[in-house]
Design brief:
The complex is a heterodimer.
Chain A lengths: L2 E4 L3 E3 L5 E8 L8 E6 L5 E7 L6 E3 L7 E6 L4 E6 L8 E7 L11 E2 L3 E5 L2
Parallel strand pairs in A: 2-11
Antiparallel strand pairs in A: 1-3, 3-8, 4-5, 4-9, 5-6, 7-8, 9-10, 9-11
Chain B lengths: L8 E4 L5 E6 L11 E6 L6 E4 L13 E6 L2 E6 L8 E8 L5 E3 L3 E5 L1
Parallel strand pairs in B: 1-9
Antiparallel strand pairs in B: 2-6, 3-4, 3-7, 5-6, 7-8, 7-9
The chains are: A mainly beta, B mainly beta.
Chain lengths: 121, 110
Amino acid sequence: QAYLVQSGADVKKPGASVQVSCKASGYTFTTSYIHWVRQAPGQGPQWMGMINPRDGSTFYAQKFQGRVIMTRDPSTTTVNMELIGLISEDTAVYYCATTVYSSSWTTLDVWGKGTTVTVSS
Amino acid sequence: QSALTQPPSASGSPGQSVTISCTGTSSDVGGYNYVSWYQQHPGKAPKLMIYEVTKRPSGVPDRFSGSKSGNTASLTVSGLQAEDEADYYCTSYAGSNNLVFGGGTYLTVL
């Protein structure tokens, strides 16, 4: 069974950076994009971008370009998402998600449990 | 990319059917057959319910079905049950390796 296990909650000050990790298991790490999706309190999810674990290529949503960096480590089957220049509006639950059982990367059929990031002075 | 448009709320009584819409443009919903629907209960991660407009993952009850006409996709839940009460979000491929979410619909089972 495929799993994505995320790092724990974090609290950061405005202007700082945060890194959230996502460890994949139960499937072949290099065959599926891993996506990052965030959800601010009381709001709908927002797609941030995705990384190809095979070659490290990334595609970021326009809103986050210049502020998000996604990296991967095939040796530990882990993907990291770093968000820089944090503001209070970045307070959200951050999810990683991937495609394991479907054929299109647009289908997110395995999700991590989410990581709460709080930005507060 | 702008978020897809969903009604903020929908409701139905147990056993009834309810349909939730997801409206985009010809650059996303109308241009590709890559619409998915997710169910989210409070404090939980989203769960895939429908993908590629009409397909249902293993384990999802056949009470859930999807369709699309033009720039609008729809999720229909038949035979409503109490456990169907949740937020529902649509997504669509939006070209150029982009994915866009809808604003969400909260389904109340009366």
